[in-house]
Write a structure and sequence with these properties.
217 residues; three-stranded mixed beta sheet; globular
């Protein structure tokens, strides 16, 4: 099975961003073993957003600064129809305003968006085989395995921890969204927009240039 990091695409004709409007904030997830927080604070209803359209058309997938995910109704219906797993919630989102980027045309009314939550708790990073650098010590908890990387040059999942989820956040690195090969085929077949998929072994996040061209070595 191949796995991919799912990210929003920041350019192209479906370039769309969102910001929350007076959000209600709840606690973050807690590790069931050490009790420490996992990820960002939770977004509670009502779900109200402003959209900012930089491209020509609205995108099917958006990820906000806190990792919250919005998908179109079309995305949600096709996801469920094909029996994919790993997303829950599917709560309606109210779009209170649409802003246009400087070069964006006047848009048609936006599609209906839904707030979804990816599963967390089963798949885990293999911390020995994944490539990352960090100046901070890894958390010793064997369940959440929380790391704070300064650079990443490829990820690997620990064998036996994946239970068939098609979308998930891995233990060890909540901030990365990973999808299955089945999701990749689904996204291609339905031409889902405003997302990009990178094989996890090729995923690079190195804002400080710590690996200096070592990615493929």
């Amino acid at each position: 099975m191949r796995f991919f990091v799912l990210k929003k695409s920041n350019k192209g004709q479906h370039d769309t961003e969102y910001s929350t409007v007076k959000p209600n904030i709840g606690p973050a997830l807690s590790c069931p073993q050490c009790g420490g927080p996992v990820g960002m604070l939770s977004w509670l209803p009502p779900y109200r957003v402003e959209l900012e359209l930089h491209g020509k058309d609205f995108g099917d997938f958006m990820e906000g600064p806190g990792g919250d995910l919005l998908v179109t109704e079309r995305f949600a219906e096709d996801f469920k129809a094909e029996g994919l797993t790993g997303l829950s919630g599917f709560h309606p989102v109210e779009v209170v305003r649409v802003r246009r980027g400087r070069r964006a045309p006047h848009p048609a009314p936006p599609p209906r968006y839904l707030f979804v939550t990816p599963v967390y708790g089963s798949p885990a990073l293999d911390l020995e085989r994944s490539r990352f650098k960090s100046n901070k010590p890894m958390k010793q908890c064997t369940w959440c395995r929380k790391i704070t990387p300064d650079a990443i040059a490829g990820l690997t999942l620990e064998e036996g921890t994946w239970k068939g989820e098609d979308v998930f956040r891995p233990r060890g690195l909540w901030g990365v969204l990973i999808v299955s090969e089945r999701f990749m085929r689904f996204a291609e077949r339905h031409a889902m927009s405003h997302l990009t998929l990178v094989p996890i072994e090729n995923y690079v996040w190195d804002p400080l240039g710590l690996y200096e061209g070592e990615y493929l070595s």
